[in-house]
Write a structure and sequence with these properties.
Length: 233
């Protein structure tokens, strides 16, 4: 971002000791006695000019450097590196959240008695993987949009500073990263609940089959064949 046009020069505020007299008034040329073309300021005006000059020098020494640094930081928000940074943070948060969910889902499938080599087991993990892909794309897209919105807020703040108006708070990278992490955890939690519901159904069916076997030993062959089909997927 080019901020050269926003910088200030020392010549922008130079209190004058004399004010030039007007040349014309209501379309009529004015004439003055003698050669005086300026009127000398009063003591009060001189004092006010001194105060204004001190305030300006204080601003140049203290606040102007801070404003220029802020403008530089805002400009850095609209770069490829900045957008890559928020996307990377969002992607890492999603991976971490779903890695934990995968472990929990596999534990639930084993508890339900589903063979790890079965098609059902693989399909359940595939569902989690698909949910992770969707979550990652959504979370990274939102993070990038937040980054752009934060940059625009910064530009508006620069204009507000120049006009002497109040500014708005920006999110900052850490807050955007935290938002991405919260969303990833929420998505992973939803994916786990979806799989838990399916696993619970499968577990209930397996339990019903075992009960049926105890009641009817002659059904062994049928149950065995079904179990074999589950293992092979």
């Amino acid at each position: 971002m080019n901020t050269e046009h926003l910088k200030f020069s020392d010549e922008e505020f130079v209190p004058s000791r004399f004010e030039p007299l007007p040349k014309r008034l209501n379309g009529h040329r004015l004439a003055y006695k003698g050669k005086a073309e300026h009127v000398k300021e009063t003591k009060e005006e001189v004092a006010q000019a001194d105060v204004a000059g001190k305030k300006w020098r204080h601003y140049k020494a203290v606040y102007a450097p801070l404003e220029e640094e802020y403008m530089k930081k805002v400009g850095e928000q609209d770069t490829d590196d900045a957008y890559a940074g928020v996307r990377g943070a969002a992607g890492s948060a999603t991976t971490a959240a779903f890695d934990k969910t995968k472990q929990q889902v596999m534990g639930g499938l084993r508890t339900a008695g589903i063979n790890p080599n079965s098609g059902k087991f693989s399909a359940a993990l595939a569902d989690v993987g698909e949910a992770q892909s969707l979550s990652s794309a959504d979370t990274q897209g939102k993070a990038q949009t937040d980054q752009q919105s934060d940059y625009i807020t910064g530009l508006n703040n620069i204009v507000a500073i120049g006009l002497g108006k109040s500014t708005e708070a920006q999110q900052g990278f850490s807050n955007m990263a935290q938002n991405s992490q919260n969303k990833a955890i929420s998505d992973a939690h939803n994916a786990f609940n979806d799989n838990a519901a399916k696993t619970s159904t499968l577990g209930s069916l397996a339990g019903a089959g075992a009960y049926s076997f105890k009641k009817k030993p002659d059904a062994y062959e049928s149950i065995s064949n079904n179990a074999k089909w589950d293992d092979e997927g």
